[in-house]
Amino acid sequence: MPASQIAQRWSHVLSVRDKPAYLALADAIARDIQDGHLNLDDRLPPIRELSKALNLDYTTVARAYSEAQHRGLIFSKAGSGSFIRTRSIQDAVSVPSLIEMTMNMPPEPRLEHLLGQFRRGIKTVSEQGDFHSLMRYKDFGGAEEDRKAAATWLSPLLPHINCEQILVTPGIQPTLSGLFASLVGSGHVMCCEEITYPGVKAISAQLGIQLCGLPMDKDGVQPDALEAACRAREVKALYLNPTIQNPSTLTVPVSRRLELIQVARKFGVKIIEDDAYGMLPVKPIAPFASLAPDIVFYVSGLSKTVSAGLRVAYCVSPTVAESRRLASALRATTIMAAPLNVALASHWIMDGTAHLALAQIRSIGQARQRLAGQYLEGYAFDAHPDGFHLWLHLPEYWLRPTFCAELLSRGVAVAGADMFCVSKVLDAKEPATLLSTHCVRLCLGGPADDLRMQTALQIISEVLGLR
Q1: Is the Cβ–Cβ distance between 442 and 414 less than 8 Å?
Q2: Nearest of 106, 135, 160 to residue 354 by alpha carbon
Q3: Which CATH number is associated with domain 356-464?
Q4: pLDDT digits over 142-155, tens only?
Q5: CATH number of 116-352, picked from 3.90.190.10, 1.10.3470.10, 3.90.1170.40, 3.40.640.10
Q6: Which pLDDT tens digit goes with each residue over 287-335?
Q7: Distances (CA, A) of 342 to 138, 170, 261, 280
C-alpha cells in the first residue's frame, strides 16, 4: 500500500494523539486491521518512505513497526519488508516486548522425541528409588554415582579422570567464586583475558581480588604478557575461558595452551579453566586440564550444553587431596547442588538424553549461526560454527552505547564490550589501541523461536546500515 495513502489516514491519528507517536502509529495499524483497510500479508511501506510521508524521523517509525510486531500484528522478511500477519485483532498473538540477546543461554531443543525423553527422565527420577533422600541435605561434592556420571560426561575431554577428584556443584558461577576465594584471596592478584566473562569481574570485585587483564591476539592470552605480569607482581592464579570464549568466541590452540602452561609452571601459578563451552565443538580440543593436570582446576557444567535451569556443574582438582580441601572451602560459602537436580542430571547423562540434548543445541546453534551470517553479510564479526554467540565488530561510524541504545529502542537488547573488558574500553572514534573491543556480543540462543531470531537480526542489520 502506498505510503501517501496510509499517511492520509494516519496523519489525523498523529494530530490528535495523547501518547508517543510510535505507540499511536502501532494503534493505527491495529485499527486499520480491525476496519479492513489492512489485510493478511499486505505489505507496509518501507520505514524511510513512511517517515518522510508523515514528517517523522526514521527511529519513530521503526519503533512503531517494532511495537506492532511485538503485538503480533506484523512480521518482517529480510530484504522484503514488513507485512500484516493477522486477519483481526482477536487473532493476533502478542509476544514479549523485548528480544533478549544479552544472556548467553543455549537455544532450547524442541524436537518432540527429545522433549519426551526429558519428561520421562523427570518421571523416572521422581518415582524410582528413595524419593525422600532427594529432599534432604547431602554431603557437599556429590554422591559416588553422581561423580561417576560426571566422569562419563567429561570423558571425551578428560578420559583418564579420577572420580575422587570431581566435585558436583550448583553451577559454574558459585564454583568460580569458591575457587577464587580459595586459590587467590582478598588483596592478591589473578590474571585473566583482557576481555573476559563479566562474572569474573563481579566475583573479583566482591572478594577484593586484584584482576589483571592480559592482552590477547588471535590465539588468546599472550604468553609474554603473562610472564611480564608474573615478574612484576605475585600472581596467584590465571583464569581462562579457552574454548569458544565468552565473549570473543576465540578458541585457544593447543600450541598456545602449552606455552601458557610453561609460563604458569615457571612462576608456580595455578590455572582455573572455565570450560563452559568445551563440549560444543564437533572436534573437541584438549583442555588445559588434560595437558597439565597437576596445576589446573577444571570447571565445566550443563548450563550451556543440556539445560540452563539444571544448575549443575563439575569441578576437577589436580589431586584428591586438593579436591577435599576445596570441598571444605566451598562448603563454607556455597550451598550444595540440589539433590533432585543432580539426580536428574546423572540420569540424563547415563541414559543418553544429555548427549542428545547437546547434539540438538549444537545443531540449532549452527543453523542460527548460518542465519546470522546471511543478515550480517558485509559486516565483520567473530564466531565459532558450533557456538551460539557472536562478537560483532561495529562500523566506525557507530558509538557502542548509541548502537546498543538504538537497538533497545527497537526492542532488541545486546551487550556492549564495556561489560567484558577488564581495562578501560576505547571507542573506534578515539585514537585507540583496543579497536578489537569496539564490539557487541549477540547471543543467538536467547530468542525462543526462529521468527524472533530473524526479527532481531533484521533489526540489527537495519541499524548497522544507518549512518
Answers
A1: yes
A2: 106
A3: 3.90.1150.10
A4: 899 999 999 999 99
A5: 3.40.640.10
A6: 999 999 999 999 999 999 999 888 999 999 999 999 998 888 887 777 7
A7: 11, 9, 33, 21
